[in-house]
């Protein structure tokens, strides 16, 4: 009953639109491959082929397949327009699957992740027991949290779509970290490369330690539609290679002392990063599983694990 009403509805719509057009006589063709019956100006088409039986009335029709491939329904109810191709006639069925695969590939290619842009946030480090409070023996490493910040520029991006709104994102970024010391001191690379306290014996106006890294993330991103835009959630591993490091002290009289050294920093480090946001604004967080300094070279022999939290402004 449903099928009859559906086809009659399509027939009625097409018939009313075709009353003022010139109709053709009924025609029957038999190519040996398929039998095709056409009534009127393509108002009714019955096509019986080796692979499918199709009945088309106006802009609506039903296709019953003779043989099935995995996951393919036997009966299809469809609506056509003037540009619709007859995919189920002999010889054309393969085009249907080729076009479907092309359509899926196009959806994947439209996926654009969120990495390229700029990021600004705060950085600090944790002890092995995940505490911000440092042991008294390395109290000189304590930071002024509000003035210890990071600035990132993500300059390249590659997106690999798994679907229209799911895919992998990778790229390159420049990660600049400033660790502003809270005490009247800085650090120095001491005997055997061990990091130790440097006391200038003068009042400091500012004292900080800076690092520069090249970063490479591999993120899995999900984009959730929300009011004509979308939320995006991404997470994954991130690696980095050290490019530069230095310390800087500014004294009360504005005299400056800058020291460039490797400070026994790990050349390579890896961690995890995650971000969530709306359109091109995200909140991000990154934690490194590699300690800031080389093993055995950390202040007081205590490893410190850097992390950063901030806001990202990305470009699609």
Topology:
Elements: H1 2-17, E1 27-30, E2 35-39, E3 44-48, E4 52-57, E5 60-65, E6 75-79, H2 93-109, E7 117-126, E8 149-163, E9 166-180, E10 186-189, E11 195-198, E12 204-226, E13 229-251, E14 256-260, E15 268-278, E16 281-288, E17 305-314
Antiparallel strand pairs: 1-2, 2-3, 3-4, 4-5, 5-6, 7-8, 7-17, 8-9, 9-12, 10-11, 12-13, 13-14, 13-15, 15-16, 16-17
As residue ranges, the low-confidence spans are 1-8, 10-24, 87-91
Which structural class do you get from the secondary structure elements?
Answer: mainly beta
What percent of residues adopt helix (DSSP H or I)?
Answer: 10-25%
State the helix count.
2
Q: Tell me the Rg in angstroms.
A: 34 Å
Q: Largest sheet at a glance?
A: 8 strands, antiparallel, barrel
Number of strands: 17
Q: What percentage of amino acids are in beta strands?
A: over 45%
Q: Main sheet: which strands, in order across? A: 7-8-9-12-13-15-16-17
Whole-number tally of structural domains:
2
Shape: rod-shaped
Order of helices and strands: HEEEEEEHEEEEEEEEEEE
In quaternary terms, these chains amount to single chain
Distance between the termini: 50 Å
